[in-house]
Amino acid sequence: MSLLGDARDDGRMAARSLVASLLDAAFPPVCPGCGLEGAILCVPCRGPLERRMDEPPGVPIGLVVPLPEGIAQLEWCASFSGPVREALHALKYRGERRLAAPLGEAIARRWARAGIGGDLLVPVPIHPERLRSRGYDQAVLLARAAGARLALPVAPALRRTVATAAQHRLGREGRAANVGRAFALESGWADAVRGRWVVIVDDIVTTGATLSGCAVPLLEAGATAVAGLAVARER
């Protein structure tokens, strides 16, 4: 990268930091887990994110289940409950984008300790209609935070072709059937994916159907392997 490019990146980071400071001053963060003002996610409520950090790769919650089809490794930080559940709901449904930083950094730490490969982070995309109504994609924010800590590039290499129903409204079997073949490779990203170990980033994993749906076009484009990385896993 050129010196000019470095200067531009430094300028962008400074601008983001200033904006974040102004937002914090105008709208003080409130921990979604306990309601403590002044902390976007307080130390006690971060506890569940740390419980699996030193466990071996792939340790399951509850009963042993097979990996989702097409996924070589699946890692997550916590069960989808308590403060983690509240934090993800606040990020996803209540517009609290500031939570992407601590949550994304948590999945980066888990992957740094347990990941067996990885060249490229690819966030699970939401449908364009949902993106327009929400204004952001929570998986993109998580992937960017994780990528910054892992020093890995983030590629918006997938697009969602079907506006599926919100997964939280469905039962386990309904969630698996809901996704189907809902993802495709974005135009122009085949070269970036080919020969790479791709890590798909999402907020929550339940059946793994979404990860499998994302893996299909990535493997068809020549990805060496595809893994999954999420903040939480639901039993």
Radius of gyration: 17 Å
Tally of individual domains: 1
Strand percent estimate: 5-15%
Helix content: 40-55%
Question: Based on the structure given, which CATH architecture is correct?
Answer: 3-Layer(aba) Sandwich
Number of helices: 9
Biggest sheet character? 4 strands, parallel
N-to-C series of helices and strands: HHEHHEHHEHEHEHE
Structural class: alpha/beta
In the sheet with the most strands, the strands line up as 1-6-5-2
Which outline best applies? Answer: globular
Mean pLDDT: 86
- Would you identify the regions where 5 or more consecutive residues have pLDDT less than 50? 1-6
Number of strands: 6
CATH class descriptor = Alpha Beta
Give the oligomer, counting copies of the same chain as homo and different chains as hetero.
Answer: single chain
CATH topology: Rossmann fold
For the terminal residues, how far apart are their CA atoms?
44 Å
Structure, explained:
The structure is a single chain. By secondary structure, this protein is α/β, with parallel strands linked by helices. The chain has a four-stranded parallel β-sheet with strand order 1-6-5-2. Strands 3-4 form a two-stranded antiparallel ribbon. Helix 4 (100-114) crosses helix 6. The termini are far apart. The longest helix is centred in the first third of the chain and has 24 residues, at 3-26. The protein has nine helices and six strands. It is globular and about 45 Å long. The model is unreliable at 1-6 (pLDDT under 50). The protein has helices at residues 3-26, 43-50, 82-93, 100-114, 128-134, 138-150, 172-179, 190-193, 209-220, and strands spanning 74-79, 120-123, 158-160, 183-185, 197-205, 225-233. The protein has a single domain, classed as Rossmann fold.
